[in-house]
Design goal:
- Keywords: Metal-binding, Zinc, Zinc-finger.
- InterPro entries: AN1-like_Znf, Znf_AN1.
- This is AN1-type zinc finger protein 1.
- One of its GO terms (molecular function) is zinc ion binding.
- By secondary structure, the protein is an alpha+beta fold.
- It has 3 domains: 46 residues, Irregular (Zf-an1 domain), CATH 4.10.1110; 49 residues, Zf-an1 domain (Irregular), CATH 4.10.1110; 102 residues, Ubiquitin-like (UB roll) (Roll), CATH 3.10.20.90.
- Helices cover 18% and strands 16% of the residues.
- The strands form 5 sheets. The protein has a 4-stranded mixed beta sheet with strand order 10-9-12-11. A two-stranded antiparallel sheet has the order 1-2. The chain has a two-stranded antiparallel sheet with strand order 3-4.
- A hairpin with an 8-residue loop joins β5 and β6.
- The radius of gyration is 45 Å and the shape is elongated.
C-alpha cells in the first residue's frame, strides 16, 4: 500500500500541520495551508496584502458649484468655468451669450467705439474693409430653366398668349426690397410691346408707368423697343423698373 503522505501536503500553520489532500496556497506569502487556515487572518499572514478597497463615506458632503449668472440659483456637481470671464456657471448658462459674458461685452464696446473711416464699416467684433461690389454673374442655362419653371406657377399675363409661346420673366419694382412679380409675354413680341403689356397686367402706379424696364444684368444698355423680347432677355430672366 502506497504512502498517503506522498500525495497530500501538511498545513504550514505551526499549530496545525494537518495533512490535506486539497491544500490552498496563500496568494501573498505563497505558503500552503489547509481549509481552516487558508485565509490571511487565520494564519496571521506576514506578507503585505492588497490595498484596501475605497468605500463611499456616507458622512461626506458633496461639493456643489453655484452658477454666477444673475438671478440663477442652479448648482452643479462639477465646475463649469467660462474661458473668457473665468466665472463658474451652470449648464444652461455655460455659453458666453447665455450669461452675458463681461469679456465679450467689453470687446464689443471697443469695436463699436472705434473711429469711423470712409473705407471701413463697423462690425460687432471687428473692423473690416469694404471692397467694391462684386459684379453680378449671369445665370447659367440650367438656372434660367429652373427659374422659368418656378415663375410659370404664379405668372400673370394676357390670356391671348398661347402657352407654347409664353416667355416667363420676373419683374422688380423701384426701391422695392421684396421679391419680384411673375409675368409672361409672347416670345414673338417686340420688347416695347412686352413692356407695355407688363405694366398693364401688373396695374402699376404712375411712378412705374413712366419708368422703363431694363434687364437686371444690362441696366445701362440701350435696347431698341423694336427688338424681339427673346433677343433682349432669356426665358426665366429678370427685369427691373428704372427711373427715366
Amino acid at each position: 500500500m502506497s504512502d498517503l503522505t506522498a500525495i497530500g501536503t501538511h498545513c504550514e500553520e505551526p499549530n496545525c500541520s494537518r495533512l490535506d489532500f486539497l491544500p490552498f496556497q496563500c496568494a501573498d506569502c505563497r505558503r500552503t495551508f489547509c481549509l481552516d487556515h487558508r485565509q490571511r487572518i487565520s494564519h496571521a499572514c506576514s506578507a503585505p496584502g492588497p490595498p484596501p478597497k475605497l468605500r463611499h463615506d456616507p458622512t461626506s458632503i458633496p461639493e456643489f458649484h453655484p452658477c454666477a449668472a444673475e438671478g440663477c440659483l442652479q448648482k452643479e456637481h462639477v465646475a463649469i468655468e467660462c474661458p473668457e470671464c473665468r466665472g463658474n456657471y451652470c449648464f444652461a448658462h455655460r455659453h458666453g451669450e447665455d450669461h452675458r459674458c463681461s469679456s465679450k461685452t467689453s470687446q464689443n464696446s471697443l469695436a463699436v467705439s472705434a473711429p469711423a473711416h470712409p473705407e471701413f464699416h463697423l462690425s460687432p467684433t471687428l473692423i473690416a474693409p469694404v471692397g467694391p461690389p462684386k459684379p453680378r454673374k449671369a445665370p447659367t442655362a440650367m438656372a434660367l430653366k429652373l427659374n422659368a419653371m418656378k415663375l410659370k406657377m404664379n405668372a400673370v399675363g394676357e390670356s391671348g398668349v398661347m402657352e407654347e409661346h409664353r416667355w416667363f420673366l420676373e419683374v422688380f419694382f423701384l426701391d422695392d426690397g421684396g421679391g419680384g412679380k411673375s409675368v409672361y409675354v409672347a416670345d414673338d413680341w417686340s420688347f416695347g410691346r412686352a413692356c407695355a403689356s407688363i405694366k398693364r397686367v401688373l396695374r402699376v402706379d404712375a411712378r412705374h408707368e413712366n419708368a422703363r424696364l431694363r434687364d437686371v444684368l444690362h441696366m445701362d444698355a440701350d435696347v431698341s423697343p423694336e427688338s424681339l423680347v427673346k433677343d433682349v432677355i432669356p426665358n426665366g430672366g429678370s427685369l427691373q423698373f428704372v427711373s427715366l
